[in-house]
From TrEMBL:
Signal sequence interval, chain numbering: 1-19
Tree of life domain: Bacteria
Protein name: Lipoprotein
Species name: Hyphomonas johnsonii MHS-2
Keyword vocabulary terms for this entry: Signal
Length: 173
């Protein structure tokens, strides 16, 4: 029996050594495109155009960097969350925002100027109405990020400003 066991152990050991020599599997979501929105990652105070604080926002990478999760709280206590991810098949960034007031689903990518531009639709829970919607996040030289949203107004055939905010990174505690 012992004379059969030794060759089997040698075969098993050489098989596992061969498996160890194979190239490691690529790390999911590690390519450069998956980090195009990293300038928005962080913990932020958010201010309106007049300099009034309107809320706080935290954007963190999760699932090994495959998704950026946003958690928003306004100064009045309203909240919302979004999932931001690169769609591997289209190469586009997509955000799905959900709050008690609305759902926004849009996609896009980096502009030549370096801002993230997304286009899609907003749906309001209470009325059931929806409209075309755009969002743009622009990194600023001082490390802040400007966020600008517009909603299409079919009655006037114009794009109306919906929200513009300046994200200022919170100091580490």
């Amino acid at each position: 029996m012992r004379q059969f066991l030794v060759p089997i152990l040698v075969i098993m050991a050489s098989g596992s050594a061969a498996a160890q020599q194979e190239a490691p599997a690529p790390v999911p979501c590690s390519g450069e495109a998956y980090h195009a929105f990293d300038f928005w990652v962080g913990t932020w105070d958010v201010y309106d155009g007049s300099g009034n604080k309107v809320g706080e926002n935290t954007i963190l990478p999760e699932e090994g960097g495959c998704v950026l999760v946003e958690r928003w709280t306004s100064t009045s206590g309203t909240t919302g969350q979004s999932y931001n991810f690169l769609e591997p098949d289209s190469g586009k960034w997509r955000q799905v925002w959900v709050s008690k007031g609305s759902v926004i689903d849009y996609a896009g990518g980096l502009s030549p100027e370096g801002s993230m531009k997304l286009e899609g639709r907003i749906l309001y829970h209470a009325s059931g109405q929806s409209a075309p919607f755009t969002g743009e996040w622009t990194p600023n030289e001082d490390g802040s990020v400007t966020q600008h949203f517009e909603q299409y107004n079919a009655a006037t055939d114009t794009w109306d400003p919906w929200f513009t905010g300046k994200y200022v990174r919170k100091a580490p505690e």
